[in-house]
Design goal:
It is built from 2 helices and 40 strands. By secondary structure, the protein is mostly beta strands. It has 2 domains: about 210 residues, Sandwich (Jelly Rolls); about 220 residues, Neuraminidase, CATH 2.120.10. It is elongated and about 80 Å long.
Length: about 500
């Protein structure tokens, strides 16, 4: 759907909205996640904005002589926002363009007046990547240039009066620039823009994986306070994202069923239903509760058997002191069978033949990896006894190795060992803290979650800027496949599609 722009409609509407005279009806003007769009500064040629609901992509066209000096001309797709937020998208110019200084990206403005104060995250046709800003109405624009050029992932974060621009070439870590003490007021117009840098041409850009994130507020207390969740599906090779399910009630950790038809996840937070396991039907988008009674305090450590018939769960009901204990239950629901007598035990993986379970056990204050027959009734076998935290064990589909994460070297990195716990060797050694290796069903890839070094190696908290990364199982360099606001509950469990083409994960936003 493409909606032609009308000159300055956005300026008029924003002024009326601010004054309270006009109340916008979303069905009339909304475009995807945005309130409206229009030309700012009366460019000679009109721009437009479109949204494809199937691909969840936006398209902008726009002219305009410049966004510099004391006044701007551009096309703007915007929404009114308050407080802190994070804006992220993958951006691509369409066509060669007329002017090397054409620009596109994210912008946050005090108003839609052409000379309004603003901050933007801009990618230029020449490849220049910069944070541009105007501190006062009618003053000249200033600029902070990033050392990175030709970025196609742009993120602009507002934290009070501080604006952080993060940019990357897709697959690589962010480079950042920060602007402080820019007061644009609490309520702003924020969104996507395009400027041709010439009056006589209209430029075009496509925006995919557009995310408008409202992060956890100041004063947030982990495990007491929660924000909402979004179920996302990632095409591993192209990187294209699709948001398929949203809820104000937090949920976590999707398992992809072996018939490819559904995702199994757990409800978290403190609201009604916390601890239930649910099944999201991918064809209908409808969610239903799995019967796991009396285990009704399930956490985000649940895994399907390789044949898809059984589900291992980690329940922390009051009956066992609120400490996690491993159970197994038919994938369609039923009466759980208790497996681990000792707590806490957090389930992570089945052996390919279904004979053994892998879990992380806390014993005498030390967390290591253990194995037990899936029928229970036997003593557990300890597989790791190294310093630090050893967690997240998972068998390869051929059963030859167990991959896991360990902080024994000072940072959290990926390791592997043979099924008897022997031949333990490090797999990653980089600038991230890496968690939860998940092996693709075809045995070729390892997908995992990475935190920055600002997070303690043994912690994997909620509501951080993290990334999902992909590593060939035969070795090589890991690359980023998704930039995510999430962390705990994002991808704790195996979440590959049966054809090894996609991953399901959870991101977060208020």
């Amino acid at each position: 759907m493409t909606i032609p722009a009308r000159q300055n409609i956005g300026l008029i509407m924003c002024a009326l909205l601010s004054s309270g005279i006009l109340s916008v009806r979303s069905q009339d003007v909304a475009l995807g996640d945005f309130d409206s769009h229009g030309d700012v500064g009366s460019p000679k040629l009109a721009g437009s904005a479109g949204y494809d609901a199937a691909s969840q992509q936006y398209t902008l066209t726009g002219a305009g002589v410049n966004m510099w000096g004391a006044s701007d001309q551009f096309h703007f797709l915007w929404k009114k926002m308050k407080g802190d937020f994070i804006l992220r998208a993958r951006v691509e110019f369409i066509g060669q363009g007329v002017e090397a200084h054409r620009k596109t990206g994210w912008i946050v403005r005090q108003s839609l007046d052409p000379g309004a104060p603003y901050a933007d995250a801009a990618e230029h046709g020449s490849g220049l990547t910069s944070l541009q800003f105007r501190r006062a109405a009618g003053s000249n624009t200033e600029e902070i240039q990033l050392t990175l050029s030709n970025a196609n992932v742009l993120q602009l974060e507002r934290k009070g009066n501080t604006y952080v621009f993060s940019a990357a070439r897709y697959g690589e870590p962010f480079a950042t620039a920060q602007l402080t003490n820019l007061d644009l007021g609490d309520e702003v117009c924020a969104g996507l823009f395009i400027c041709a840098h010439t009056a006589d041409a209209v430029e075009k850009a496509v925006f995919r994986d557009v995310r408008i994130i409202r992060p956890a507020p100041e004063g947030f207390v982990p495990y007491r306070d929660y924000i909402g969740s979004v179920m996302e599906i990632l095409n591993v090779q192209s990187g294209q994202l699709q948001a398929i399910y949203r809820s104000d009630q937090p949920f976590e950790a999707p398992n992809w069923t072996h018939d490819g038809r559904a995702l199994i996840y757990n409800i978290s937070g403190r609201a009604a239903g916390r601890g239930q396991l649910c099944r999201l039907d991918l064809a209908t988008g409808k969610s239903s509760v799995l019967d796991t009674a009396p285990c009704l305090a399930n956490n985000n450590d649940h895994v399907l058997s390789f044949d898809g018939k059984m589900l291992g769960i980690s329940d922390q009901s009051a009956a066992h002191g609120g400490q996690s204990r491993v159970f197994t239950v038919p994938v369609a629901g039923g009466t759980p069978a208790a497996i681990t007598p000792l707590t806490p035990s957090y389930f992570h993986g089945w052996s390919p033949d279904g004979q053994f379970l892998l879990y992380t056990g806390g014993r005498n204050g030390k967390y290591d990896i253990y194995r037990m027959p899936s029928a229970g009734g036997a003593a557990e076998t300890r597989l790791t006894d190294a310093p630090g935290l050893n967690d997240g064990p998972e068998y390869t589909p051929d059963g030859s190795h167990i991959y896991f994460n360990s902080s024994r070297g000072g940072t959290m990195q990926l390791w592997r060992m043979t099924p008897d716990g022997q031949n333990q060797e490090q797999v990653t050694n980089d600038e991230f803290n890496n968690w939860f290796p998940h092996i693709s069903p075809d045995g070729k890839w390892i997908a995992f979650l990475s935190y920055g070094r600002e997070v303690a190696p043994t912690d994997h908290p909620y509501y951080k800027q993290v990334c999902l990364r992909l590593l060939p199982i035969q070795g090589g360099k890991a690359r980023i496949i998704a930039y995510v606001y999430g962390g705990q509950g994002t991808m704790n469990v195996p979440s590959w599609s049966p054809d090894s083409a996609r991953l399901a994960f959870v991101s977060n936003t208020r």
